[in-house]
Specification:
The chain is an alpha/beta fold and 388 residues long. It folds into two domains: 211 residues, no CATH class; 72 residues, no CATH class. The protein has 15 helices and ten strands. The strands form two sheets. A seven-stranded mixed β-sheet has the order 1-10-2-3-9-8-7. Strands 4-6-5 form a three-stranded antiparallel β-sheet. α1 runs antiparallel to α10. The longest helix is centred in the N-terminal third of the chain and has 30 residues. The two termini are 59 Å apart.
């Protein structure tokens, strides 16, 4: 194998080994801790995932499923749609277009569960001067369109974390519902504030849940709130966990699939393989030898090829004996009664003949064995050489 082919094979094997190692590590890591999945995903079995709740619903007789398409694809679905993970503090500024989409899904028969993350950190340092803001503050769509207001209460954290946050004038808080319009029905009060706010829209309803931590794997293991977990789906048997808003969207392409599962590095492997192919096709390690157009190789005929083959296979002194043995083999097949074979004594005597006049001796031998063949094939050929 040439030096160039050896380098190509070595590079290909190195890339294949690297691909296999990274792929195995990715699969093992995903199966072990699923750290590549986002928080509140039903595929995440870490403490902030909701995989335990997903599997618990399946064991209780519900029919949970996952949605990787855009949320609009669920329009008209008569099911409880579990939409978890959005921070409650920032959801106040959700665009009215998104709120209209939620209302449309609910009005067509779905029970939309908007489960919010209540934890946040706010700044407690007051501005030194009342300078006007550079940009106008975003509009509180949650209050304007749905009539729901939120407030925060201080959250208990370990001592070292609190000291660290206090250095930066930051305060850990939990957001909760503080006021709501009459269209909303509060329920499941915890610490002086409702966990659920439910409002009917058409054939379905929108349910706002202020604490998504209750649905995580850790809470189900340490202190499960059975009342909240059981009442969230309502009377629906089908429960759809939306994964698209968490970044696990099915785009229908290889790039989208690789991005969704954290395999974007695979694209780098394809780029490396393409570069290797171009390099192999364009680079030569040996200088190209110029072959003149006039250069040609003369061919040889079949007779000369057969002669050379016989010369390499049969010694010169054994030519007559080989010919006689071949005659003995073919004589019974001839259609003439005068053809006879040679005895073993005659074959032994052929080894002593002179190979220089083998052709003349062959003709003489043929005439003795088959006179009629001799008259037809060699009418004027004498029979020199030693007689048998």
């Amino acid at each position: 194998m040439s030096h160039r082919n050896l380098l190509t094979v070595a590079a290909a094997l190195a890339l294949a080994a690297a691909f296999a190692i990274v792929l195995a590590q990715s699969v093992l890591r995903r199966a072990d801790a699923s750290e590549s999945y986002p928080a509140y995903s039903s595929l995440n079995n870490d403490e902030n995932g909701t995989k335990a709740y997903f599997e618990a619903l399946a064991r209780l007789g519900f029919a949970p499923s996952r949605n990787y398409k855009t949320l609009g694809k669920l329009a008209g679905r008569h099911a409880a749609i579990f939409y978890a993970g959005s921070p409650l503090a920032s959801f106040r500024y959700t665009s009215e277009k998104d709120l209209e989409q939620f209302e449309a899904m609910a009005s067509r028969g779905a029970r939309l569960l908007l489960v919010f993350d209540p934890e946040a950190v706010i700044s407690v340092e007051k501005p030194k001067s009342p300078a006007p803001p550079a940009e106008p503050s975003p509009e509180n769509s949650l209050k304007k369109r749905w009539g729901v207001e939120v407030s925060y209460a201080e959250r208990a954290v370990p001592g070292p974390s609190r000291e660290f946050l206090s250095r930066f004038k930051m305060l850990p808080v939990n957001w909760r519902f503080s006021s709501w319009s009459g269209a909303w029905t509060p329920s499941h009060a915890r610490n002086g504030a409702p966990l659920f706010l439910e409002r009917a829209f058409g054939q379905g309803a929108v349910v706002l849940i202020s604490d998504s931590k209750l649905f995580t794997n850790r809470e189900l293991l340490v202190r499960p709130d059975i009342e909240v977990l059981a009442s969230a789906p309502g009377a629906f048997h089908d429960i759809v966990f939306d994964e698209s808003h968490l970044g696990l969207a099915d785009t229908g392409t290889v790039v989208g699939l690789a991005t969704a599962h954290g395999l974007a590095w695979v694209l780098l492997g394809f780029v490396a393989l393409a570069a290797l192919y171009v390099w192999r096709a364009s680079v030569s390690f040996l200088p190209v030898t110029a072959v003149p157009v006039e250069a040609s190789v003369a061919g040889r005929d079949a007779h000369l090829a057969l002669s050379h083959l016989l010369m390499q296979s049969i010694p010169a002194k054994s030519v007559l004996r080989v010919a006689a043995e071949e005659w003995n083999r073919c004589a019974p097949l001839l259609l003439c009664s005068s053809a006879r074979t040679l005895a073993s004594e005659d074959l032994d005597r052929l080894d002593d003949l002179n190979p220089t006049d083998a052709a003349a001796q062959y003709r003489s031998l043929a005439a003795r064995l088959n006179p009629r063949l001799n008259r037809r094939s060699f009418p004027e050929t004498p029979a020199p050489g030693r007689a048998l």
